[in-house]
Input
Amino acid sequence: MNRKYQGIIVLNTRGKEDGVDATVSKIGREMELDGAKLDQIDHLGKKKFPYGSKKLTDGYYVNFQIQASPATLEKVKAKLRLHPEVHQQDFLLRA
Output
């Protein structure tokens, strides 16, 4: 059974600011190939971190709203952990 999830993904765009749209599109396509249904993608823009993280001072935030089974979500999260441009991710169940 598919559930609705909302996920914030922080991209490491250092030196690649002009390729953000292509990266977000690629991530969305990969989610769909894994079986998730994309409901909405919101570009939240570049924001400074309140503290340094892995030698980064800022990141590009993207909000993904998807529908997926719990198993599909785990597959998506595992692939995102291996993605070289994904700095951080967090998915929550939507009401």
The mean pLDDT is 92. The chain has one domain: 3-93.
